[in-house]
Amino acid sequence: MISYYYAGFELGLYLFLGSTIQLEALKLTTASKAAFIVQTTSVLVPTIEAILGRFPFKKILPSVVLASIGIILFSVDDPKSLGALDPSQLNLGDSLALFAAVFYSLHVIRLGSLSSKLRDTFRLARAKTICQLCIASVYATLALTSTDGIGEYLDNVTFNDLQASALILVWLGAVTTAYPQWAQTRGQMSVPPSVASILYSTQPVWSSITAFVVLSEQLPLKDIIAGVAIISASLLAI
User: Where does the record place a coiled coil (predicted)?
Assistant: First the structure.
């Protein structure tokens, strides 16, 4: 029988590799291109599932197409520029973003399998978070000790910096990490990975709605169309 910490290590490793490679990609390519490439998980997951014979691709093909259209519209500033895109011009940053998408896709697929075998979602989410934290801590320690990063930070840190960092950590830890880890693990007990990947593609929709409500940002017509396409894809997939 698979232990919770074995499963947690595997899932945590996928997330760590995905997020770390994505950060490296952002150094070498634009944020919009990286975001678009990483969101291809909504296509990669159903494709991998179909190749493995776990999910009929035809069943979810309309949702994949709609989600892809929505992601493209969200990711480009000028839809007319799509005709000028040349896959042969992908740089190292774009390639790294694609590798990150592969690891995120593996996480979604394996989570669907492991969460159905290990029924205690809280224990699995906790194991995944602890393992991911341990892996990230080792990596961060090695990265900082190999440079003057720690000394430089401590020389310039202020009380206000520490206070702001504490609030950010509470928000990121509780709202954007702890709850999603549990909710994703619980949800994928009954939702197939291919369907889950389509639902996850609604992320830019919620980001735009939050920016509109909290920051009073205006939504261009293409973003509204993109949101409708992604929501329609999600409804078809359910």
Answer: none
Euclidean distance between CA atoms 96 and 21, whole angstroms: 6
CA dist., res. 165 & res. 123, Å (int): 28
Mind giving me the DSSP string for 198-237?
HHHTTHHHHHHHHHHHHS-PPPPHHHHHHHHHHHHHHHHH
Which residues contact residue 45 at a Cβ distance below 8 angstroms, ignoring those fewer than 6 apart?
A: 105, 108, 109, 193, 194, 196, 197
- CB within 8 A of 115, min separation 6: which ones? 121, 124, 185, 186, 188, 189
pLDDT single digits (tens) 78-116: 655 555 555 555 578 878 888 898 998 898 888 888 877
pTM exceeding the 0.90 threshold for the entire prediction: no
Looking up tokens 């490793």, which residue turns up? 13
What Rg do the C-alpha atoms of the chain give, in angstroms? 19
Nearest to 5 by CA among 139, 184, 137, 130: 130
Encode pLDDT of 195-214 as tens digits: 888 788 777 777 778 777 87
Cα–Cα distance measured from residue 33 to residue 50, given in angstroms and rounded to the nearest whole number: 26
The domain limits of the chain are 4-237
